[in-house]
Design brief:
This protein has 334 residues and is an alpha/beta fold. The protein is built from ten helices and 14 strands. It has two domains: 195 residues, 3-Layer(aba) Sandwich (Rossmann fold), CATH 3.40.50.720; 109 residues, UDP-galactose 4-epimerase, domain 1, CATH 3.90.25. Helix 3 links the parallel strand 4 and strand 5.
Length: 334
């Protein structure tokens, strides 16, 4: 198969490329390098440094492609309340561009990587795929809107669609000099520099964190199994539901770091309790968690130590700056 991966220089996209190459497929990919590193791209990938929003380019690149994995996105949930134009353009509109080209070029199957942000605030956790989505921020709204568009195009034009919902993925290759997202990477980068982590709110927000290889084992099946067509499937663990305080404590313990977190006001629209049920993935994909949170964090620490700590790069514009904008971004506190 000829497999095209958007966001192939990113964290998830590059690991997915490795998996597809290992299965013997031809892998093509693109990335604008907003959220990834060039050295993430595997050597055998036919790589193009282009933006998904350019429809004419996407039409050219998707000729002869069998399967598309659309992972490219400015996945900034908290920032999206303050940079809605940037996030919507690179979440909803870039999906429209890639999907249009995929249909026009006769792509057989489109695997869309959505987000747990689609669920928003729910009365019950863990989130199940049949829940009514109530996204709380422009990022979640754009992700869910893109899903709806894809279902429409799939129904009209006959392209097979699978919607994956990976959540809170951690592991090597994650961008760790990004001040706007990736809480575990931010904390590790800070603590390795001898700096205290910054926590928004009181730190009692709860999440499950998913090690990337556990997700990849499921995601690679979505391109080929017949029983997943038309389905939305959560990808990630529903075990080890931990607070952000507990996440910081685990990292500090692994690093033998004297933890004294700096607490800042909570970010607008942040969901307090967020985790997804993995029951459907277990049933359809044979999902089974192989890595504990502690093992995943340990591998991240080894990766960042090997690469070297980095100064945080405020590489994205904050479009709305007012008294609700986090001080960490206004005053570049990371």
């Amino acid at each position: 198969m000829r497999v095209f991966i958007t966001g192939v220089a990113g964290f998830l996209g590059s690991h997915l490329a490795d998996a597809m190459l290992a299965e013997g497929h031809e892998v093509v990919g693109c990335d604008n390098l907003i959220g990834g590193y060039l050295d993430n791209v595997p050597d055998d990938v036919e790589f193009y440094q282009v933006d998904c929003n350019y429809l004419n380019t996407m039409n050219k690149l998707l000729k002869g492609v069998d399967i598309v994995y659309h992972t490219a996105c400015t996945a900034y949930e908290g920032l999206s309340v303050f940079s809605p134009h940037l996030v919507s353009q690179n979440t909803y509109l870039n999906t429209a561009s890639v999907a249009t080209a995929a249909v026009a070029q006769g792509v057989k199957r489109f695997v869309y990587c959505s987000s747990m942000a689609r669920y928003g605030h729910q009365e019950i956790v863990p989130f199940t795929e049949d829940m009514i989505c109530k996204p709380q921020d422009p990022y979640g709204i754009a992700k869910y809107a893109a899903e709806q568009m894809l279902h429409c195009l799939s129904e009209v034009h006959g392209m097979e669609l699978v919607v994956a919902v990976p959540h809170n993925i951690i592991g090597p290759r994650q961008k760790y000099d990004d001040p706007y997202r990736n809480v575990a990477s931010i904390m590790i980068n800070l603590m390795l520099q001898g700096r205290q982590p910054i926590i928004y709110g009181d730190g009692t927000q709860k999440r499950c964190f998913s090690f990337v290889q556990d997700d990849i084992d499921c995601l690679k099946k979505l391109a080929f199994q017949d029983n997943v067509v038309g389905e939305t499937i959560n990808i990630g663990p529903d075990e080890e539901f931990v607070t952000i305080n507990e996440l910081a404590e685990t990292i500090a313990d692994l690093l033998d770091f004297d933890l004294k977190p700096i607490y800042m006001p909570g970010r607008p629209q942040e969901v307090k309790l967020a985790t997804c049920s993995a029951d459907k993935a277990r049933r359809l994909l044979g999902y089974n968690t192989q890595y504990t949170l502690r093992q995943g964090l340990s591998e991240m620490i080894d990766y960042i130590k090997q690469k070297g700590t980095k100064k945080f790069r405020y590489h994205l514009d904050v479009e709305i700056v007012n008294d609700k904008t986090p001080e960490t971004w206004k005053n570049k506190l990371f």
